[in-house]
Amino acid sequence: MSENMPTGTLTILGLESSCDDTAAAVVRVRVDGGEVIGAGEILSSVTLGQADLHAAFGGVVPEIAARAHAERLDVCVEKALAEAGLGLSAMDAVACTAGPGLIGGVLSGVMCAKGIAWGAGLPLVGVNHLEGHALTPRLVSGQGYPYVMLLASGGHCQILGVLGPGDYRRLGATIDDAPGEAFDKVAKMLGLGYPGGPEVEREAKAGDPKRFRFPRPLLDKPGCDMSFSGLKTAVRRQRDLLVEAQGGLSVQDRADICAGFQAAVSDLLAGKVRRALADFRAETGAEALSVAGGVAANTALRGALEAAAAAEGFSFDAPPLRLCTDNAAMIAWAGAERLARGEADGMDLSARPRWPLDKARAGMLGGGKKGPKA
Length: 374
Ligand code: KG4
Ligand code: ZN
Description:
The chain is α/β, with parallel strands linked by helices. Helices cover 42% and strands 21% of the residues. It contains 12 helices and 10 strands.
């Protein structure tokens, strides 16, 4: 890459290893005058999940995850390059997740990226994992700044105002659990499988969302912060009441609990997002809402978000699910945006367990079993 701002294309190798997915991708972007323009071209995107390694423990075990990342990253990189039909010499840089996340996994990725950068003489770009999620609408459709992004997964829950690369406003975040964690815990207490989100959604289809009215914590309070732990407790209490009264749960009871819980999560997220849209639009003129994270797969939630966006005069766009969940294409893209602006890291790049996107606001409490949320 030249010292001057590049114009033309950049081809970036991206690595992701912050939770339980080992991923590598090759993404090509167009650059003009120090800015990335248009959507990105994903030449390859390989993800090796670890669900089989963690299933017996009901959640991600950090040490097992770190070891698996260290063992699989090189395989993943080879596969991504082969699928793109390119060698390392065709890359303009290597980008890796440098945080936030489970530190052993992040370290594995950073060390692997450093080795590649050193060996192939490529610039190294450390990427904030949350920035990867936040910029996905730009990778997918060339979304212009500013816009609002809801990140909702097993590890994240925040509403972000996206103003530009490296320029974020955290409009709201969870003060305890992430919504995906709540789905997983509710599934577990109802005897459903892991991950819980798709199981709860499937059960909810046959359920009556009005039979059990679960609380919507913080929804009537000012601000856009969210809470899911009281909701989870209310579901447990309802289950216990039914079990005590009838000796167990009927199929319909379980479906109704799932439907009621899903409705509460959707109302909560969409209610807070709607408030954030109004505030952010007044300040910045933003008119677009997007989502990322595994919970964004939920159809009821998508419907509620679409309605909230329409009510505030916003467009709503959800990236394809494989780009909503953890992947390396988003890391390559976020790296390209930094690189286009002349930013790169040295060999002293460190792995960070916590790394809030909004520098003006401290990280939220609550690590969660999938690692810190900001
Ligand atoms: O983004 P993701 O794949 O991984 C991280 O958490 O980083 O998100 C996984 C989470 C899990 O908690 C899972 O239960 C939830 O997303 N999830 C869903 C659905 N599909 C996955 N939650 C609600 N409804 C779904 N259809
Ligand atoms: Zn993520």
